[in-house]
Amino acid sequence: MDGRSYDGGVDEPQxxxxxxxxxxxxxxxxxxxxxxxxxxxxxxxxxxxxxxYRSLDRLEEWGWIESRWETLAPGEDRPRKRYYxxxxxxxxxxxxxxxxxxxPVPSRLRPRFGFMSRRLAAR
Amino acid sequence: xxxxxIVLGIVLGLVVNETTELSPWLxxxxxxxxxxxxxxxxEQAEIRAEELKALINVRPGKLxxxxxxLGFVSSAVLFRIRRFLRPETAATGxxxxxxxxxxxxxxxxxxxxxxxxxRYLFPSERYRGEWRRHWISLVKSGGIVLIYGVLGVWAVQxxxxxxxxxxxxxxxxxxxxxxxxxxxxxxxxxxxxxxNKRLMTTRGVLRRRVEMLPLIRVTDxxxxxxxxxxxxxxxxxxxQTERWRKPLxxxxxxxxxxxxxxxxxxxxxxPAAVEARLGYDSGDPSxxxxxxxxxxxxxxxxxxxxxxxxxxxxxxxxxxxxxxxPAPRRPAGQGSPIDxxxxxxxxxxxxxxxxxxxxxxxxxxxxxxxxGPPPTAPPDGGxxxxxxxxxxxxxxxxxxxxAREAARWRRTxxxxxxxxxxxTAESANGAVPPAS
Lengths: 123, 436
Fold this sequence. Notes:
The structure holds two protein chains of two kinds.
Chain A: H1 17-32, E1 36-37, H2 38-45, H3 49-62, E2 65-69, E3 82-86, H4 91-101, H5 117-122
Antiparallel strand pairs in A: 1-3, 2-3
Helix pairs in contact in A: 1-3, 1-4
Chain B: H1 3-38, H2 44-58, H3 63-85, H4 87-90, H5 115-118, E1 127-132, H6 135-159, H7 162-188, E2 191-195, E3 198-203, E4 209-214, E5 221-224, H8 227-232, E6 234-239, E7 250-255, H9 257-269, H10 271-277, H11 287-300, H12 337-371, H13 397-415, H14 417-426
Antiparallel strand pairs in B: 1-2, 2-3, 3-4, 5-6, 6-7
Helix pairs in contact in B: 1-2, 1-3, 6-7, 9-10, 11-12, 12-13, 12-14
């Protein structure tokens, strides 16, 4: 992408599935007023960190999300988390995109142990 | 239990403990490093480095922290390699292309095809999934290489003159290791792909082989699982056929054979059910469908009008509903203004073409009576070397028919004058053609 900001039109960006799901999580965070950081998204999606951060990079480039640092208590010294939030005037666009493009996700086929699969499925 | 074993146990325990203590620290170092690799030279690098360190802190588990860190590093390194190989895509900071490579955009229904296989799909094809072989395939091929390596070393030790033994052994070991490493990319690039039209495999790293089998030619599909296959859940697919060599006759070591089998079979027998389950028909038409809908409207309204009994030449003969690119049906009024305009213009164009065709037909029938050889000339063109003309001069009933044809053509032309005029006016030069 060339860093343009997109405003719902014909040439809206093509959103891949991971980005869409990240957007979904961020929307959820927006609605429930939760500070969403990278690990939360990873956990919610069950995707690897690089995939999630690729999507976050992309959304940030499009200007759909904004981010801020966690504020530490005085005297505390550790790496700060970074919180992501969907930009208020992109909420409607994001919501419609998520609604329009979300399809039931068929389960991905992965190699599994045959003798364990039933028990794992029951869990 | 001897003393040395006790000491060894304690030392090993300490080592394991240290490793797990060390791994969060290592993971933090890794993610910092990965951020600097991936976002080198931008302010984003420092932001991401700190953020990812915080992420590692939050992430539960100790060894899993290390694995997360390793994941970030490998992704960053891959990103750099990709940028090195293809500067134009990475220059935008986008490690994965927005759209799959090639023309098959947004017609995919399930997950997107990876860039590895997307280039082998044609635009209107619907992607249903792709699978690597089960990891047992990697183990098997690696095992074979290993067995040959061991056999080679053994043979060298037993059969070769002692002064050559060392060199040869080293060579064999090096080659075996290289071949072993080579098995991984070979396994990784070996994909089976299912679309709504065909079953495909792509193989090879340097030498590439793409095979396909149309779903209609998948006959008597069966899968076989060995006892180990039952245990580890892999199987071999066999497509029975009379032909001896047929592509995809046997597909070894596919994961989850039953599920895969059902997917292929469902795609063969109930493609509509697959689409319904994937929500294709219920959802909004995607962008690509929108692009095609103008074309679709055009085909639906193809024969624009009957012209004086002249059957329109039908170019849509072989565009039956099977071969047509599927696009959502839309009432003509709901198309975008551009679509409608396009359809109107094309309609006018077809009318004109039909008039021309009629005219040419009439002319070819009527022309010999005016410009042909005189009626007294012999019908085979005489002896002056001209090509023998088999066209006969219209006489009697044939001449009448030609005259009737010409009259009909004139009538047609006169009747369609308004639409001609309108079309010309719309094309904005305003020149009204003179009446014939």
